[in-house]
């Protein structure tokens, strides 16, 4: 589809349905028309501050109306937005802005202390030059191939990679999701995940492409989110397991009938949580996606959300999934590496020549899973997190799921530790509500898991290392183990 | 988005949601899984009959389950389907199949008498070789650029042109429509327009891309269609003005609450009809589209369907519209040629080197219209149908709208006739319910139209010439006038 364009997402929406509610954020409510004119002004400010179409601009902000407006304003100028994770250390952020060659970083009060020094200019929103009127000439059309955003993937080994998401990738992703979840004009999507991750950004973009309202949550407090669902007439929310666990725990009664979809991503979900949600009538749509696929690539279809617990569903309509071992397609129920394909999949990493996908269009995700006889995807783990114990594949997520089903275990993470006889064995890290002994935990696991999957060691932590999207950072658990062995 | 593919539409749908109802046709109901296996068998039959991936295959059929299955089967083989209008004469059909170089034409009992002789092989569905099992290997992925269908446009001058619609064009069209009309899982679309036109074919394709049911109407009888809406729980229907007029006239009571959208295309709609529908609570979404745009390119947004009567709305989300006179953009309310843009617009006509669109991606439609201050599109006419009378632009559709508002006029068509003083003047053709005199009609028009727009002559016909999509064929009316002057 070379040579085709799409209209500037927000400008088109402001033209098509100017009076619809676009965004709610901490007491402020904007229509698409109002948002368009705010964005034009912000674009004029950014332009005065030196942001150029040809450059990459860093965004180091926390979720807010300001952040949403800034991202759109960069699209209006045509500058590629490099979305920087505000939970990273200053050093990590400095590495990413240096690598991406951002010319300016836009930041806010909350994040500015993390802005790197001596890499490039940094401007806080509050310090932007004033603009009397909006940007005169803005990018009215987005070429499908044009880079819209760059996001660095955590990267389990080596340096993180900057995924280039084009405007075409974002459009295909949004349309594909609508073909699965449906699109109702009264839909309102709760945005409680960070916009520097694709899980959060994609909500902002969908709201504009669909012409529906995005409600930006002021924090990820579980009670607050539960009450927002009622107050703000939320119909769809995106969440990850840890957040959802907290929401279910602090939930009184049921969600209202207009709430039609809890889109649950961020890796394999513990079955105990899914069962709890099913009992409470929360319609969970487990999903699978990553930065490289510009959000979801597989999601449960509506008819299966109470019947296929534990599955991340089937590919979205314009996407495909394949499971391979040694480049051979796997049989049903046989675990292997997950390969994905679709026009939502990014073409390249920043400053890397090689395309992400092979000649057949497939992207090797590095994740492990299987498809059942009907083609439903079940995620097992990241390949890099796989524990191979005595020749057996052990999936940390499976063990974590068992640990989390224990009434007194609040959070759990499992990694491999070296073992003289078995090569590797599982080691569990947990946070518990009341005092638990290592033996109690092991005994519980022995009842539910094959012997080789039972953790050989259990460590008790105050809190598990999770990233901004609340994804477990297993490599930080490995660091703990390595620190110990280094000390031996 | 070069290099990207989408999965085979029907095969993907049969994989994703196998048990959903796909198609209802004269007492037969099929799920997507059942339809997929029927299509595989039909593809095997067609393959045995000599249909090849590299070839173009004619489809000369009337709306039926068989026609839907045949179209999909050609996609499965990868052969481009040349959809032949069964209302054309044998000579016209022969010209198109010769021009398109179809190797085989697939036909049915109703249409086979029109199949051209000595151009290429013709096979009736009933005479296809039997197939024990389905096609072994089918086209599992559609490259976005690959030609899916060819449809010849009526062409007001010279020979008709074969519009090549790619799989990408069809997908973008379907997704764009969903972003405007929304997508509900209980949607059921009534298919009462011919599938050899884009208005009908696009319903079949949307039903598969959306995973909803298409109900093929056995005929375009107004009473039958009204009752199908109730019986078949239809939520959306596509219609053209003449058909809708008949439906409203033969309607008892109201449409049920689940009926949410009457998509009205095929050119400017008479205001009297729109008013009648508004009074009866029929949600009319006037739309504008053509073969070259693979269906709709502008459609009223839901919030405007009762407030912007007469407008074809705004562009669909990924599309743009511009009005130009002498390559200059028009002011609001200034009439000019309609230009359109979007990834649903075909790239080329068959065997013509030139692209349809200019370097900026715009396709000049040859239609005349204007946009009001808010950007709502109002269609005036085909440029080729424009009457220029004493230097004034006279739009036949406007006069036809006035004629149709007369209680005794059933159908109306207006064309220009040569005039010594004014260059051209309007001439009206009407069918009336009871006897009307020419003077009665003129007097009625004088009350409602500027003097230069009042027809100079009124002809009474039994029936107006309309094509299969019920579009008025004004050139046939011109033929009548030319015949007269030839006889003088």
Automatic annotation (TrEMBL), chains A, B:
EC number: 6.2.1.26
GO molecular function ontology, one term from the record: o-succinylbenzoate-CoA ligase activity
Pathway as given in its UniProt record: Quinol/quinone metabolism; menaquinone biosynthesis; Quinol/quinone metabolism; 1,4-dihydroxy-2-naphthoate biosynthesis; 1,4-dihydroxy-2-naphthoate from chorismate: step 5/7
Signal peptide: none
UniProt catalytic activity: 2-succinylbenzoate + ATP + CoA = 2-succinylbenzoyl-CoA + AMP + diphosphate
Domain AMP-binding enzyme C-terminal: 398-471
Described purpose of this protein according to its UniProt entry: Converts 2-succinylbenzoate (OSB) to 2-succinylbenzoyl-CoA (OSB-CoA).
Name of the featured protein: 2-succinylbenzoate--CoA ligase
Organism this protein belongs to: Metabacillus lacus
Gene: menE
